[in-house]
Design brief:
CATH topology: Collagenase (Catalytic Domain)
Distance between the termini: 63 Å
Bound molecules: zinc ion
Oligomer: single chain
Strand content: 5-15%
Radius of gyration: 21 Å
Structural class: mainly alpha
Low-confidence stretches: none
Number of strands: 4
Shape: globular
Largest sheet: 4 strands, mixed
Helix content: 40-55%
Number of domains: 1
Order of helices and strands: HHHHEHEEEHHHHHH
Strand order of the largest sheet: 1-2-4-3
Mean pLDDT: 90
Length: about 290
């Protein structure tokens, strides 16, 4: 009888191990070189990418490619192109850039809606105030993003808002089992209590109208974490100045000294003959285009 139990336990163990190995295997790695039109999109639209070193840019590109190979992006009642897809992937990679082994194992598909939608996922009619959401229940494994909010996040770099980054931060938060503002996978246990104290204090400041943090962050801890992350990745220097303790904590969580990054605000336009945005002094076609 005992032998039977041991055998059963072993079998169950082997089953879970196999399942883990097989599901890890499903994650496809990029083999092709990074397409140069995608590189132009990144240079033109993604400040974060522009501010990276050449080696980091290569890593970022690889992660973008990997994300797009493993996550489907589908337009719902709206046509989408490669720029939309690259921006979704960039939003996914920015928060976890310093964790190259990170996998969004809880995401299979991102649905792009034309604009705001309501709780029934309707894109017309009353009560449409949602710009993005992480699916639960029958929508598990899916994320919805409004196309206009996706683009707005990368066009306006001063408003501390980026809906797509916000939703990916919820997903990161969710990977440990609960969306509670504590990204247990990124935050070491001994920091959890100080982090919660800090969130409570910051939410309190929002209530007292003594904060420049998006008031939506006052909804709960999970929303605070997502909203503060938008701020951290879009205006790191400002966050470090106005909320030093919060900045420090976010730097710890995302393992990224974002305030050292030079996020340029002026938009660049890249063509084959234009000077390369990497500031090498060469033309784009003789420099980063063919990397
Ligand atoms: Zn949210
Ligand atoms: Zn270059």
């Amino acid at each position: 009888m005992t032998n039977l139990i041991i055998a059963l336990v072993l079998l169950v163990g082997i089953f879970f191990l196999l399942r883990k190995i097989l599901s890890d295997k499903k994650w496809v790695l990029p083999k092709d070189p990074f397409p140069s039109p995608w590189r132009i999109i990144l240079f033109e639209k993604v400040n974060f990418y522009h501010a990276l070193s050449p080696e980091e840019r290569a890593l970022f590109e690889n992660k973008i490619q990997e994300f797009l190979l493993n996550c489907k992006i589908t337009g719902i009642a709206v046509s989408i192109d490669i720029a939309d897809k690259v921006l979704v992937a960039a939003s996914a990679i920015i928060p976890v850039f310093r964790f190259p082994d990170w996998r969004y194992s809880n995401l299979k598909e991102v649905l792009i809606y034309p604009d705001r939608f309501n709780e029934n996922f309707e894109t017309s009619g009353e009560g449409r105030n949602i710009l993005g959401m992480v699916g639960t229940g029958y929508m598990e494994g899916k994320m919805i993003l409004s196309k206009s909010a996706l683009h707005h996040g990368f066009q306006n770099e001063t408003d501390k808002k980026n809906t797509a980054i916000h939703e990916f931060v919820h997903l990161i938060d969710k990977l440990d089992g609960s969306v509670d503002g504590i990204p247990a996978l990124l935050l070491e246990k001994q920091y959890t209590i100080p982090w919660l104290d800090l969130i409570n204090k910051k939410i309190d400041e929002i209530y007292k109208k003594k904060s420049d943090i998006n008031p939506y962050g006052g909804t709960n801890r999970a929303e605070f974490f997502a909203v503060a992350s938008e701020y951290f990745f879009e205006r790191p220097k400002l966050l470090a100045k106005k909320h030093p303790a919060l900045y420090e904590a976010m730097e710890e969580i995302f393992d990224h000294e974002m305030d050292d990054r030079n996020l340029v605000k002026n938009k660049i336009k890249v063509s084959r003959n234009s000077p390369c945005p990497c500031e090498s002094g060469k033309k784009f076609k003789h420099c980063c285009e063919g990397k």
